[in-house]
Amino acid sequence: MGNVVKHLLNLVAHKRFYNDSDECTFEEIIGHNDVKRILTKAIFSNKPVHVLLVGLPGCAKTMFLTEIMRRFKSSLFVVGSNTSKAGLVNQLFERTPKFLLIDEVEKMNITDQTSLLHLMETGIISETKVNKTRQVELASWVFATANSCKNIVEPLLSRFLVLEISEYTFEQFREIAVSRLTKEKVDNYVASIVAEKIWNELGSRDIRDVVKVGRLASSIEEVSFIISMMKTKIK
Predict the structure, then answer these.
(1) How many Cα atoms within 13 Å fall on the side-chain side of residue 174?
(2) Kind of pairing, strands 132-137 and 124-129?
(3) Residue 197 predicted with pLDDT over 90
(4) CB contact at 8 A, 101 and 65
(5) Fold held by 2-164
(6) Beta carbons of 55 and 61 less than 8 angstroms apart
(7) How wide is the angle at C-alpha 87 spanned by C-alphas 82 and 92, nearest 5°?
(8) Is 9 exposed, middle or buried (0-12, 13-18, 19+ CB in 10 A)?
(9) Paired strand residues for 75
(10) C-beta of residue 39 within 8 angstroms of C-beta of residue 51
(11) Surface-to-core class of residue 53, CB atoms within 10 Å of its CB (0-12 exposed, 13-18 middle, 19+ buried)
(12) Which residues, at least 6 apart from 123, have a Cβ–Cβ distance to it below 8 Å?
């Protein structure tokens, strides 16, 4: 009977952590199937496995984090450039997240990066202020993104399973562009032209550029005009 009760309690805890969901399919993200598979295994591993997604802007790194944030209640999403050690530690004490999601972790300064080391290594967070110490033990998974590993301190980098996310092919890029823009009521043909011109004329692989142009242009002529202005600005 004791084992049955323990099993039921584990199921309750599982539902609480996982927002009544037993999967994370990343269905909104096109491609990157190998990354999806490994990241899903990490999410449901019995003990923390920390994962760093590395790739150029526009390759869906942030989308992986936001999908986890939407699926699981016990998540904390932060942006590296806006995160300080004191602020992060305070959030960890208050929220005690199962998943700590850090976008652009390489933009955290060195002191703030080192604040993650103890959490990832031991699961213990401690803080001392005016001779008062508080401490909490967390089983937290850290999932982070970075444009490159260049500015990440080696001790922190070594604690991650690093997955490199490749650039999209043009076909994938166009599929994503059409999917995103049609949700914003942009005509399919116009959306396809936006993707083609962003890719070929602007040389960009960032879906954010597609969204910018799609929101401004209501015709093919306007698409061409906006792209030409963006090219002038780059020069």
Answers:
(1) 12
(2) antiparallel
(3) yes
(4) yes
(5) Rossmann fold (3.40.50)
(6) yes
(7) 115
(8) exposed
(9) 99
(10) yes
(11) buried
(12) 48, 137, 138, 139, 140
Burial string for 104-121 (b: 16+ CB within 10 Å, else e) reads bbbbbeeebbebbeebbe
Q: Is the whole-model pTM more than 0.90?
A: no
User: CA dist 234 to 158, 170, 199, 201, 216, Å?
Assistant: 36, 22, 15, 12, 18
**227 phi and psi, to 5 degrees?**
-60, -40
pLDDT value at 224 more than 90: yes
* Residue 182 tokens, joined: 């049609």
Percent of residues, the chain, with pLDDT higher than 70: 88
